[in-house]
Amino acid sequence: MRLGRTEKMMLEGRYGEACKRSLELIVAIAESYGRGELIKIKSAHVSGVSYKSIGDAGLEYLKDLAEGGAKVRVKTTMNPCGFDLDKPWLFDVDETFFEKQLEIIKSLEAMGVQPSLTCTPYYSDNKPRRGDHIAWAESSAVIYANSVIGAYTNRESGPSALAAAITGRAALAKDHTDERKPSVMVEVTAKIFDYSDWSLLGFVVGRLVPDEVPLIKVKGGTMGDKLKYLSAGLGTSSATSIFWTAEQDFQEPRDLKRIVVTKEDLKEVRDRWALTRRPTVILIGCPHCSLREVKEIARSLKGRRVRRGVMFLILTSRSVYRKASELGLLEIFERAGAHLVKDACLAVSPKKLSRNDVVLTDSAKGAYYAETMTNATIALGGRRACLEEALGI
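The structure corresponding to this sequence follows.
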C-alpha cells in the first residue's frame, strides 16, 4: 500500500482515533480493489441518514464518531431522512423516531456534514466540476455526477463515503480513472417523452445489462433533468456507476456489443406497475425535483384543488424549497392542497401504508423501492398522469 506522509500519520493516530479508523476502512477497500492506492477527493455525499435505514446500531456508530472528535476534511452533504423535519405529521412519525432521527442528523452535523438532506446535492452548493475526484453514496447521484457532470466517484456506501469525508481520501478504483469506457451500445428505438419514460428507460437498460457500462443512443438526444431520472432508473436495476451518451466527445470503440431497447421492453415493465384503481398517494420527486420542475408543477396546480382522499407529495431539496418559498410558490401548493416537502424520501420513511393504499409515482426507482418496502399497491405513470389523478381530471 503506497501511502503519503499525512496518510501514515492518520494511521498512527496523530489525527485522532476516528480519523485512524476511517482511513483503515478506506485502505481495506483500496486493497480489495487490488490497486493499492488512495486518491484525494474534493467532496463527499453520505447516505444512510434515515433512522429507518440504519437503526440504533447506525445511530450509535455515528454518535461514537462524533463524540470521538471526527471532522470532515472536505465539503460533505447528507442524503434525505424519512420525513420533512418541519412537517413530521405528514409521514406518521412518532416521538421516538423523531428524536432518534434528530440525533443522527446532529451527529453528522457535529462532524461538519451539511444538513442538505437531499439525493440531489448537485442542485445545492455541492456541485463538483468536471474532472473532480469525489466520494459520493446514493446511486442516482453517483451516476449523475460521473455521467452528466464528468466527475470521478466510486459507488460508495454510507460508511465508506463518511470515512472518505473524514480522511479526504477514497480508494483508487476504475471509477477514478479513464478506464470506465462503455462496454455495450444501447440503441433505443422506443419513443422517450417525459420524466417517467427516462426513468423507465434507465431501469430497463439496467435490467438488460446489469454489469456493463452502457453507451445510450436515444433519438432526439439527452438533456437536462431527464438525465437525472435516467441515472436513478439505471442505478436501481444495475451495479454500474456511469453511462455514456452519443453526444459525448470520445472515440467509440469498434467492438462494442449492441442491444436494442424497444417500446415493448418499456411496456413490459410499465404493465407491471399499471394503475388499476385510483391512487391514495401520489409521489413526484424521486430523485428530488429541481426548481424548474417545481415551477412546472406549480403552474399546473395554480387555481386548482387536489381531489379529496389523495395525498399529493412533491419532494425536493432544502435549497430548492427555499427558492420556491422566495418565489411565492409555496402558497400555490398550499391552496391546491398539495404538499411540497423537503428532507424526505418515501423509501426510508416511517409512513404507514396499507394494502388498501395505492401509490402512483412517475419514478421507476420510486416504484421499485415503494413496492419493496411497503404493503401498498404501486403504480407508475407519467408526470401528466400524476397531475391528472391528483386533480381528478
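The mean pLDDT is 95.
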